[in-house]
Design brief:
alpha+beta; 35% strand; signal
């Protein structure tokens, strides 16, 4: 059943891309690349259709009802099920006004952009509730239980996480998420993950509401494997510089 839903989702994305392939780009558009199968361009009009869909994901969910099961309502339903399965381990935490809905931010030639992907952005969307952190994937939200939240400073938050799906029998296998806010006005944040095995990974994220502060790079394509390549970022040095 999950494979059928996944196939329907891919079909909806393909249909959406084929219908919109020649609709977004205007004659005065700044193209980063362009061929018969893919157009990558910069969209700076916040009122454009593609920008509005980034700012408000429910627009696309209304156009394609099959995508609704991967949105916020599905997340809330998943959280109910998770709380029923682990009533003693899921508690509410003070998030200290950390935003709920997070999306990826990217660097291209030293400038920050938000991104409208051909298929799915990487890193994927994040939802932060008072009890769970959710990763949005094509087959639905993936939950991780929050065990503690500590505000170290105005620019640093420390969150302990239990990946109950990967470690269902070991609630002490806690990963650590440190959120480094490097731009307070636009809420540009580095999410530094430290697994309980000691491995570290980094992501650059912003609250969805902050997307209006950045131009949008659009990857408008018919081949779902053809995403745009962004700059690599030296995250440890970026953290130290702030």
């Amino acid at each position: 059943m999950k494979n059928i839903i996944f196939s329907l989702t891919i079909g909806a994305i393909l249909l959406f891309k084929s219908l919109s392939f020649n609709c977004y780009a205007q004659s005065d558009t700044t193209f980063l690349s362009k061929n018969e199968n893919r157009k990558v361009y910069i969209e700076n009009n916040r009122k454009s259709e593609v920008f509005q869909k980034l700012l408000d994901p429910t627009i696309q969910e209304k156009a394609y009802p099959e995508l609704r099961q991967y949105g916020l309502e599905e997340l809330k339903e998943s959280e109910k099920i998770l709380k029923q399965a682990h009533p003693q381990t899921i508690t509410k935490h003070n998030l200290y006004e950390l935003p709920e809905d997070w999306i990826a931010l990217h660097s291209y030639k030293g400038k920050y952009y938000v991104y409208s992907p051909c298929q799915i952005d990487t890193p994927t969307n994040r939802w932060l509730t008072d009890s769970c952190l959710y990763y949005k994937y094509l087959d639905g939200p993936f939950p991780v239980i929050i065990k503690s939240v500590e505000k170290k400073s105005d620019n640093l938050y420390d969150i302990k996480l239990w990946n109950v799906i990967q470690h269902p029998d070991n609630s002490q296998a806690l990963d650590e998420l440190q959120i480094h806010i490097i731009d307070k006005k636009r809420k540009i944040s580095i999410w530094e993950y430290k697994s309980y095995q000691g491995e570290s990974t980094y992501e650059l994220l912003i609250p969805r509401k902050s997307a209006q502060h950045f131009d949008l790079i659009v990857c408008d394509c018919q081949d779902l494997d053809s995403e745009f390549d962004f700059d690599s970022i030296d995250f440890p040095n970026l953290i130290l510089s702030h």
